[in-house]
Design a protein that fits this description.
Helix content: 25-40%
Strand content: 15-25%
Distance between the termini: 105 Å
Radius of gyration: 28 Å
Oligomer: single chain
Structural class: alpha/beta
Number of helices: 7
Order of helices and strands: HHEHEEEHEHEHHE
């Protein structure tokens, strides 16, 4: 079940949410550093992160699930956000080049259907980038942030569900090594936590950031065809011309 959009907006307005936005945004940008001319769709609550692409991308659209609710985005320009059924997006096949999932995969009632819909709307060379809570991290264990709700994943679980829905993981990243605590000591030292985390806390980031490519074709297991048995033909004697019995 998706978190209410008001709670999500309030989290990102707080000090801890600002820290999360900063480091998750850096992780997203590290994977997608060149999006010039691309069409990007965000599913879930992606507005804190879509803004970093608006100047370069051809188009950025924010699709917010109906059970979550929607807020206007951007606030001072014509709206680019819509309330949708996340498993029936209002897009044609192959309509976008990139899809960003944040607060989406772990919240979805049917993550497989969600990913299959993402596959449908992505172009042939499309890229998916998913930010997913790490089941071993502190952020997934505390429900004081949105990352503590829904279904967290391990790397192997993410890989399995991506392959099941015809995606191939291409790159991995992590973010949010800082503990999810609203205390100034932790917030001021958040940069230090993020720098030392990959070396000393590698199994315990708050989120996985995984990039995957769309598989154009699904591999089909080869089935051994049954042999068609042809009856063996036995030679027969053909009557020769004039072979009728002579009269005596």
């Amino acid at each position: 079940m998706f978190i209410d959009v008001v709670d999500l907006r309030n989290f990102y307005a707080q000090s801890l949410g600002i820290v999360a936005r900063r480091f998750v945004g850096q992780g997203i940008r590290a994977h997608w550093n060149e999006v010039r001319g691309d069409r990007i769709a965000g599913i879930g609550y992606t507005t804190p992160y879509l803004g970093i692409f608006r100047e370069d991308a051809e188009r950025c659209l924010a699709f917010m699930p109906a059970s979550q609710g929607v807020v206007k985005w951007p606030s001072a320009r014509p709206g680019l956000a819509a309330l949708v059924d996340e498993t029936e997006l209002p897009l044609t096949d192959a309509a976008v080049d990139r899809v960003l999932l944040v607060h989406a995969l772990e919240m979805a009632d049917d993550p497989v259907r969600l990913l299959r819909e993402v596959w449908r709307v992505l172009s042939a060379n499309g890229r998916l980038l998913a930010v997913v809570p790490n089941r071993r991290g502190l952020w997934a264990r505390m429900d004081t942030t949105p990352f503590g709700h829904g279904r967290p994943y391990s790397r192997s679980q993410i890989t399995r569900i991506l392959r099941e829905t015809m995606f191939t993981p291409k790159g991995w990243g992590e973010a949010l090594f800082v503990p999810p605590v609203q205390r100034s000591l932790f917030l001021r030292s958040a940069g230090v936590w993020e720098r030392i985390g990959p070396t000393f806390l590698s199994p315990f980031p708050g989120v996985h950031i995984v990039e995957a490519s769309k598989q154009a074709y699904r591999a089909i297991p080869v089935r051994r065809e049954k042999r068609v048995l042809v009856p063996r033909l036995e030679p027969v004697l053909a009557p020769s011309p004039g072979g009728a019995a002579r009269s005596h």
